[in-house]
Specification:
By secondary structure, this protein is mostly helical. Helix content is 75%, strand content 3%. It contains eleven helices and two strands, in the order H-H-H-H-H-H-H-E-E-H-H-H-H.
Amino acid sequence: MPSRLLSGLGETFRWRLLSSLCLAPPVLAAIILGMPWTGLLLLAMIVLLAWEWVSLTLGRFALPSGVLLIAGITLSVVLASQDHWLWGGLALAIGGLAAALASPREGGRGGASVWLLSGSLYIGFACLALYYLRERQAEGLGWTLWLLAVVWAVDIFAFLVGRRVGGWKLWPSVSPRKTWSGFAGGTLAGIMMGICGIFWLDARPLWELALGAALLSLVVQAGDLAESAVKRHFDVKDASALIPGHGGLLDRVDGLLPASIALALALWLGA
């Protein structure tokens, strides 16, 4: 059965599988070990995501905007790690605004200032959310692993089922390859993986994990579509060519970013 499901998926899937097998172990190791390794992982994410976002927005990486964006997001996480969350949010806004103000001198695309500020807030809040989940929750490791498990299950099965089953397109004007069958397969896989969290988040009732995973699965796929819309707006296929089979890091974590914000917000409100 697995061989039948994987057959005919082509070179892209093989590159995706190989890239995932290479990237997943160090990511999981950094999360399991905690600080300072989690901090280094977040720093790498900030640098790469900011580089891709600036390149996407301006058509190339420009030092003033790029450095300001990276500095603002990094400082916000550092301040949050010292429990200065308000100052961290302020650093995020100032860094994004400074990057946006620097962009006209760099000859960016139309609306570059707004896109740079939006990217700073989006990437920054997601990194703050990931830090909050791992380091500021009583079951931080468990919740972070649960989040990754749900997101990866959605991504993998949305791709596999969509390619294998096909059918009606989900939103052809934004992402021509995504189908309703892939959407359904990814959502169901996310729910099933979320339910498996009962084995390491046994303080939570089963229905809560199932409902949370269902909602999170929708957020993951919405984030994927949103990133596709941004790339279509800028008329590019991938955020970069950093990861074979995936494109850029932004293409790989397009569902993780909004999902981390949603989960962190839900846990914060429920605390």
